[in-house]
Every structure is written in C-alpha cells, then in structure tokens.
Design brief:
Layout: E1 30-36, H1 39-44, E2 70-72, E3 78-80, E4 82-88, E5 91-100, H2 104-108, E6 117-120, E7 135-139, H3 149-159, E8 167-176, E9 180-191, H4 196-203, E10 209-211, H5 227-233, H6 241-256, H7 259-269, H8 272-284, E11 298-302, E12 309-313, H9 329-332, H10 346-352, H11 357-369, H12 375-402, H13 410-416, H14 422-438
Parallel strand pairs: 1-8
Antiparallel strand pairs: 1-4, 2-3, 4-5, 5-6, 6-7, 7-9, 8-9, 10-11, 11-12
Helix pairs in contact: 6-7, 8-11, 11-14, 12-14
Pfam family, one: CotH
InterPro entries: Spore_coat_CotH_CotH2/3/7
Protein name: Inner spore coat protein H
C-alpha cells in the first residue's frame, strides 16, 4: 500500500499512579504483533453479507457456522468471532477471540488482506490483559493515505486536555497454516479501548455508565420510556433506574425546557467546560464523522459522583478533512469552530447561549490556538513521526505490492477526492483558526453532499 510519509506523533499520557498498569509503549514505538489462526477459523471469520464494498471481489468462503457469534456492523455485515493466538511485543495470548472490525472500513478494505482487528483476551474465560485492558484494537487506516490521522487526532485531543485513547503503532503479521506464514499485513494503529481501565485513569472511577451511541446526533428526546433510547444509546451494561432516568431527563430538558430552565439546570447534567474542549478539538481536526454531524464515533460517560455527562472521541481515521460528506476537503480545512455541523445542533447551540459560556469558549479557543493547535508544535510532531516511521511505512508499501494490491486508497480517492496531507492541513487549518478568532471569517458551515459533488466552494455562514 503506497502511503506518503506524512505522519503524526502522539503526546505522552500523564504519569500513571503506582497501582495502575505499566505505561503503554512509547507513542512512536512500533510493536510487533502476530495473529495466528487455523485455516478453519480464518475462513469462518471472513465478513458476511451487508454492502458489497469497493474493488475487485474476493472469493466468497463457505457459509459461516450459524451458531458462531458475530458482530453485525452498521451496514449489516456480520463479522464473526474466531479463536486464535495473538503475540504482541513478545507476550503471547492463547485461545483468544479475534474478529475484524469496522463499519465503512470493512467496505473500504474489502479488496485487501489488511483489515482492522479486534482482539478480546477475555473470550472463553480468558484472564489475560494488555496494559489493564482485555481488548486490543488494531486499526488498519485503509481510508487514510497518510496512515496517521487517528494517532494525530487523539494526540491533539490529549494536548487540549480532553480524555482520549492512547495509541502506538504495530507491524501486524498473519499466520494461517497453508495460506499465510507470518505474512506482514502492514503498519497499524494500536488504539487503547475505552473501558474500565480508561475510565479509572481519566475520571477516577469506572462505576458510572459508559455508552457508545450510534445515530444519536443531538441527544434527541424520545419520550420518558428508557426502552426507546436503549438500542441507539448502546450502554455497556444495564443502567440503573436512576441512570436511565437521568439520561432521559437531560434529553427532555435539552429539547423541551425554556431558556430559563435550561440555564438553571444544564450544568448539573453536563460538564460544560469539558464539552467546550470536546467541541473545540472536534472542530479543529475537521472530523465530520463524529457526534456533531453523523451522530456516532463517540462515547458518553455518566459520572457516578457528579451525575454529569462527558464525551470521549473515537475512530479518527476520517479526521483532518478526510470524509466525503459535507463538502470538499478545501471547505473542511476552513470548518467553523462554532458550527462544525450541518443544520441545527441543539445541544451546542443551547450550551453556547448560556450566560458567559460563549465568552468562555472564545477564550478557550484563543488559548488552544497558542498551545494544542499551534502550528509550530504540530509540525514538530510531524517531523518526529516522519523520522521514526519512515522504514515501517516502506515495509507496509512493499507488503501491499507483494500481495499485488497496489495503492489501496486510489479507488477511494478517485471517487471522493484526495484528502489533504497532514502538513497542508496544519498550515491551512491554523490560518483558518486565526482568521475566525480575528473575526475576519466565520468559517465553513457544512452542508450535505459528497466531496467534490457537495455544495459550492467557500460556502460560509
């Protein structure tokens, strides 16, 4: 797979307490990973059904075992669980759960062996943990010609003091007897799971309610019955009656309360300062594949001590103007910092209308422009990452050529347009931020449509 050597670095997480798991590998480390599966398990785990995806069709394996557990993604594709062994950084976990992962990514990667993996160390009663987590996420970055948007994006969130997953890199090899002999699939992003270990590290407790909503763009009010919310909100455990009631009550407040009531009660339900930081960074990295536009790729955490909601970002391979919807890449590099979404977004609009909050947000943006969003800092990170990862990227490209896959992003770019490289993005985006803070530009407010077939250029509020 051909990938330009424009890359991104991560900032280190805060020092861990003595009783926390050991620190993860350094942010620019490349960890060796080998996934080993029997031929039968490898065949059984291949994606089934759903949309067809792009590129030449691969041979369809025999029908899957109907009793085998599978995850169904948003496009109706079954991603069956297999059992195999995973070696990561010299540590081997045997008899663990392995499956492919992704929604659009599965479609985009339908023509390559380099697919994303989800490894569950706890399936079948396993007790293994990788840095305190039973889940290992290996993301292939198939939609990202640079391969580093995900890592770069999380680094910006963390630099802006938004809790976000840690990442490192992994060279992933696949062993399937008779088919793949420790074959190099390529360079992956190894992304921390948002789970109990993550919650304890960032919020001091994992006793609250963690949710991963899908299709919930504005915490819409669906009535007083929690069962109307459960499927879309996707809680990681059954909520208590009090937790369910609190989520429903906040939704009702947001969508039905008058301004006076919302002013009185909003900050009891939402950590407003944390939300402003989440809004600022999501806008800066120009990620429309998010809560604000498409209503997914985020977690909600209801803190048990405060009763307030917190947002956690997820899945950033489409960040940095790398999504075909809502305008061109050129437009998204000028994305509005206050309205990074099409149409209305009641939560953001009501929060920014709270007394003093608009001023707090502008002050936050000014601070971030000189710190987390600073051009010099971001370019320095790119310099370091490029030097550290040049050779792994070259091996990635050689592996794709050996599989005769060529440039696996070429077809996507032909259809949707080529996204900007990260250096170009940093230069254009920081200039846009400066103009918006100076009041000379309102930035681009998204509209519908695909990439170059979307709204006319330079559509601004």
């Amino acid at each position: 797979m051909t990938r330009p050597c424009l890359v991104a670095a991560l900032v280190l997480a805060a020092p861990a307490a003595a009783d926390e798991p050991p620190r993860r590998p350094a942010h620019l480390a490349v960890v060796p990973v080998t996934v080993t599966l029997s031929a039968a398990e490898y065949t059984a785990m291949q994606p089934r059904g759903g949309l067809a995806g792009f590129g030449p069709r691969q041979p369809v394996p025999p029908p899957a075992d109907p009793t085998r557990e599978a995850h169904k993604n948003n496009f109706g594709t079954d991603l069956p669980w297999a059992t195999g062994d995973v070696t990561i950084g010299g540590e081997t976990f045997t008899g663990v759960g392995v499956r492919y992962k992704g929604n659009g990514t599965i479609l985009d990667a339908s023509f390559t062996a380099q697919k994303s993996f989800r490894v569950n160390l706890g399936r079948g009663g396993g007790t293994g943990r990788y840095h305190g987590s039973k889940t290992i996420n290996l993301h292939c970055g198939i939609t990202d010609p640079s391969g580093y948007r995900e890592a770069f994006g999380y680094a910006v969130y963390r630099a802006a003091k938004v809790p976000a997953p840690a990442t490192t890199f992994a060279e992933v090899r696949l062993t399937v007897p008779g088919r793949h002999a420790a074959e190099l699939l390529g360079l992956y992003t190894l992304t921390e799971e948002v789970d109990a270990a993550f919650l304890r590290a960032h919020y001091g407790t994992a006793d609250g309610l963690l949710l991963k909503p899908e299709g919930v763009r504005d915490l819409e009010f669906r009535g007083d019955d929690w069962t109307r919310y459960a499927t879309a909100y996707r809680p990681k455990r059954e909520p208590t009656a009090a937790e369910a009631r609190r989520l429903v009550t906040f939704s009702r407040l947001l969508h039905t309360a008058d301004d006076a009531a919302f002013r009185r009660e909003a900050e009891a339900y939402l950590d407003v300062d944390a939300y402003l930081r989440f809004l600022a960074v999501t806008s800066f990295v120009a990620n429309v594949d998010s809560f604000f536009a498409l209503g997914h790729n985020y977690y909600l955490y209801l803190h048990p001590a405060t009763g307030r909601l917190h947002f956690v970002p997820w899945d950033l391979d489409r960040a940095f103007a790398n999504h075909p919807l809502f305008g061109t890449a050129e437009q998204k590099m000028d994305l509005s910092l206050t309205k990074p979404y099409p149409g209305k977004h009641r939560l953001t609009e009501r929060v920014l209308a709270l007394p003093g909050v608009g001023e707090r947000y502008r002050a936050l943006l000014r601070d971030l422009a000189g710190t987390a969003f600073a051009k010099e800092r971001l370019l320095k990170e790119l310099d370091a990452a490029e030097a550290a990862l040049k050779e792994p990227l070259a091996r990635d490209a050689a592996a794709a050529r050996a599989r005769k896959e060529g440039d696996t992003t070429a077809g996507l770019q032909l259809m949707y347009g080529k996204p900007p490289n990260l250096r170009e993005f940093v230069g254009r985006r920081t200039a846009s931020v400066a103009a918006q803070l100076a009041g000379t530009s309102a930035g681009y407010v998204p509209a519908g449509g695909f990439g170059p077939f979307g709204p006319p250029p330079a559509k601004k509020e």
